[in-house]
Design a protein that fits this description.
Blueprint lengths: L1 H28 L4 E6 L17 E7 L3 H14 L5 E3 L13 E7 L8 H11 E12 L5 H17 L9 H7 L2 E10 L9 E9 L1
Parallel strand pairs: 1-2, 1-4, 2-3, 4-5
Antiparallel strand pairs: 5-7, 6-7
């Protein structure tokens, strides 16, 4: 299943990427400054939108625990000529970095699938410097009762076929509960996505 997921992920997401996700990624990532850690970098969908190597961007670390996804990630790095990026196999729930190592942690379509969302967010907060930022883009539970009901019905099966992806997580609330202050947040429907994964939140949260 992991190999299949790595193979089909980009084609499966292409329509939604073209419709809205690429624009959202570009808006979130273009102005990043300092040392950056991306959680669950996957096949490297964010790579075209990071600032060019060199100041003000510092260290760029891409964490991806799945070896099949990492193979795709390395391929995309080569295609884009991003020799500055470091790739590691770190899991979001157990990051091998000292406290306060980064200025920014990036999480895009990751917090839906980590086994323990609270632990992953605690780790993100730990490795951020005081005042550091969590940049996030995640699909979440719907605020429409009818759609939420379908998300709840389908979630057990969806998790099995979509790499532990949860449909009903309230990720904005989890970010606040982890000790972040949400600086800005936007809720929007992801165009050309399956209805059960259309509700999204994106924005920036700060480690106090």
């Amino acid at each position: 299943m992991p190999r299949l997921m790595a193979w089909i992920y980009d084609p499966f997401m292409r329509a939604t990427e073209e419709a809205c996700l690429r624009q959202w990624r570009a808006e979130l990532l273009a102005g990043l400054v300092g040392d950056v850690l991306e959680l669950g970098a996957g096949t490297g969908a964010n790579l075209p939108f990071y600032p060019a190597p060199g100041p003000p961007l510092g260290r760029l670390v891409l964490a991806e625990p799945d070896r099949h996804m990492r193979a795709r990630l390395h391929q995309r790095l080569h295609e884009l000529g991003r020799a500055d990026a470091e790739v590691c196999d770190a899991d979001a729930s157990a990051l091998p970095f000292a406290d306060g190592s980064f200025d920014v942690v990036v999480s895009t379509l990751v917090l839906c699938s980590v086994p323990d969302q609270a632990r992953a967010l605690a780790e993100a907060r730990r490795v951020l410097r005081p005042g550091g930022r969590l940049v996030f883009l995640e699909h979440v539970a719907s605020d429409r009762p009818d759609r939420l009901a379908w998300q709840r019905r389908l979630e057990p099966l969806w998790k099995r076929v979509a790499g532990n992806c949860h449909l009903t997580r309230d990720t904005a609330a989890a970010i606040r509960a982890a000790g972040f202050t949400v600086e800005r947040i936007e809720r929007q429907s992801a165009r050309r996505a399956l209805p059960i994964v259309r509700p999204t939140v994106r924005g920036v949260a700060v480690r106090a």
